[in-house]
Write a structure and sequence with these properties.
Layout: H1 2-8, H2 15-35, E1 41-43, E2 46-49, E3 52-55, H3 63-79, H4 84-115, H5 118-125, H6 128-163
Antiparallel strand pairs: 1-2, 2-3
Helix pairs in contact: 1-3, 2-4, 3-4, 3-6, 4-5, 4-6
Length: 164
């Protein structure tokens, strides 16, 4: 039941928290654009490029993908025997990955708007393109989980060999 909670949890998040996450998403997207060489300015939740601008609305905050990742982290914690540090680390990494991947998505939409391609914007914002970023976040978290399981397996093998 707890895992199912994460499907509906974004609807329960207070609007103040959503607006804070939305502002952080706008900051991250503007930083990514600046770091990759774009001339960008940000004012609140608006990101301005020389040839266009985007407003990071609450629906683009990334709350949904963060909670999706947290649900996956909970499933991972429940399915596999992990030490205490890994049980704490998994949800933190899941949330950070969800937030960062969403920030990249918002930055990409800023580039698309600056290029003036409305069809591409619709695809990446509302269409199947938006789902690709959820898939990327899940794959990255899956790789992280695989890494944690390999660490645990290596420790268990060393422990078993030292007992013999």
């Amino acid at each position: 039941m707890l895992v199912l909670f994460f499907l509906g949890a974004p609807k329960l998040v207070p609007s103040l928290l959503i607006s804070q996450v939305t502002l952080l998403t706008a900051k991250l997207a503007a930083f990514i654009l600046w770091y990759t060489g774009f001339e960008v300015t940000r004012s609140g939740m608006n990101i301005y490029l020389p040839t266009g601008s985007i407003e990071v609305a609450s629906g683009c905050s990334g709350i949904e993908i963060i909670f999706q990742q947290l649900g996956l982290a909970l499933i991972f914690i429940l399915m596999f025997p992990l030490n205490k540090q890994h049980k704490i680390l998994a949800p933190i990494v899941a949330a950070i990955l969800g937030f960062f991947v969403n920030g990249v998505r918002v930055a990409l939409m800023g580039v698309i708007v600056a290029k003036g391609n409305q069809k591409a914007f619709e695809y990446w914002h509302h269409g199947d393109g938006s789902l690709i970023f959820s898939m990327i976040a899940v794959i990255l978290f899956g790789l992280f989980c695989w890494f944690l399981l390999n660490i645990n397996e290596t420790k268990n093998k060393k422990l078993k060999s030292s007992i013999r």
